[in-house]
Design a protein that fits this description.
Strand content: 5-15%
Largest sheet: 4 strands, parallel
CATH superfamily: Rhodanese-like domain
Number of domains: 1
Helix content: 25-40%
CATH architecture: 3-Layer(aba) Sandwich
Shape: globular
Number of helices: 5
CATH topology: Oxidized Rhodanese, domain 1
Structural class: alpha/beta
Length: about 140
């Protein structure tokens, strides 16, 4: 009975939050705010804000592009919106620890052949709370 419960929990995680489950199991590395800030200095890093366009335009991490789950059909065709260089470092973020958009997008990128996908699980709320630079169009 215990193993049946474990299987049901695993299936639920896979269906409703595959990105979060994989991210928490170590499939997608997570960066801290400090690590992300250091990576922003590197030329081959692309930061992807997975929040809504309205949230993005209210403020985002400098240099981030906005790719939403709606425009990519739940990230299934995310590669169309990313650089062709599959070795480029991609860092995905959204609304914080409980938001599944960034992990889902990172998993989709990995499944599309991108080798260096990361999440910043603190997301924009953590970035802003730490007083780090914010870009507003």
């Amino acid at each position: 009975m215990n193993s049946v419960f474990k299987v049901l929990v695993l299936l639920t995680l896979l269906v409703f939050g595959s990105g979060v489950a994989l991210s928490q199991m170590g499939g997608i590395p997570n960066l801290s705010a400090k690590e992300l800030q250091e990576r922003l200095e590197e030329p081959d890093v692309l930061v992807v804000d997975t929040r809504s366009p309205q949230e993005y335009y209210r403020g985002h991490i400098p240099g981030a592009i906005n790719i939403t789950s709606q425009q990519t059909r739940m990230f299934h065709n995310i590669a169309r919106y990313l650089p062709q260089d599959r070795n480029m470092t991609l860092v995905f973020y959204c609304r914080g620890e409980t938001c599944t958009l960034a992990p889902d997008a990172a998993v989709a990128a990995m499944r599309s052949g991108y080798q260096n996908a990361y999440t910043y699980s603190g997301g924009f709320p953590d970035w802003e709370q730490q007083g780090l630079p914010v870009e507003r169009p």
